[in-house]
Amino acid sequence: MFQIKTKVIKNIEVAPKCYKIGLFCPRLAKKVVPGQFVMLRVNSGPEVLLRRPFSIHAVSGKNIEILYEAVGKATEVLSRKKAGEYLDAIGPLGNGFSVLGSRLSVLVAGGMGIAPLFFLAQALAKRKSKILPNRQAGQNPNSLVLIGARTKRQILCEKEFRNLGYEVKIATDDGSKGFKGKVTGLLNNLLSTMNYQPSTIYACGPKLMLKEITRISKKYNIPAQISLEEHMACGIGACLGCVVKTQSAKRKAQNAFEYKRVCKDGPVFNANKIIWQ
Ligand SMILES: Cc1cc2nc3c(=O)[nH]c(=O)nc-3n(C[C@H](O)[C@H](O)[C@H](O)COP(=O)(O)OP(=O)(O)OC[C@H]3O[C@@H](n4cnc5c(N)ncnc54)[C@H](O)[C@@H]3O)c2cc1C
Ligand code: FES
Prior knowledge:
By secondary structure, the chain is α/β, with parallel strands linked by helices. It has six helices and 16 strands.
């Protein structure tokens, strides 16, 4: 982990209120793994005092990309950054996903939960091409991405996942594209009709969605790695502001629990370890 000045190389609106910012930062780009995040200081004045956490969306050479939605003050300030400006970042932070590329994986994204899953998809595709070198370039037939959004206007990255060789299925709350309903409903439908089981579910999205993913992963006995989002003050494990209740790994009693810091011990957890409140 280090603190670094990064240079904005682009900041473009890719969907209503959703932006992709590209940052030149060779050190971070070299070190970061999928699922990790950075704490960004969006300005140097008192307007926004605390740093904000953002997942790494993609790495391309010496640059990283962050996909974000303007939901409040910090993200609104961020959306006004121009190419050539500098941003102070601390990272890479957190643990990241385990990239298991040998069998079918299902990536499930709810809303902005898509952000870290694209970097993961890049890494899974790369790993698969090492394990299965005879596949044609760009093909990744054993992996599926499920994207959930409120309406079709909010669907992000569909084309980018397809370009990586993934099969993509969509769920929208209002039925304007794909399955009508929650992305977890789509997952449940697919698992109940699929004649093979994925080896891993990777998911990121709102808490209720991840709780449902946990239930589904237990029902079908498929391990799930989920990336949690909590409000964060320090982002480096010092303030205990982001703890979640998990099953204790140390004590054997069935209801023994321990608190884990999302920023330091996560943000990625095995779904079956989380004790949902
Ligand atoms: C590990 C991690 C990775 C993240 N990655 C991304 C990302 O890649 N792209 C992205 O758009 N956002 C991401 N977020 C959420 C992002 O940090 C918040 O949207 C941002 O801090 C909001 O700041 P703000 O000042 O604009 O809004 P605020 O005024 O602080 O908040 C606006 C609204 O967003 C809610 N909110 C703020 N922070 C969080 C949070 N951490 N979890 C859940 N709800 C929150 C608030 O409750 C409020 O309703 C991530 C959060 C975490 C913890
Ligand atoms: S945000 Fe301070 S311990 Fe996690």
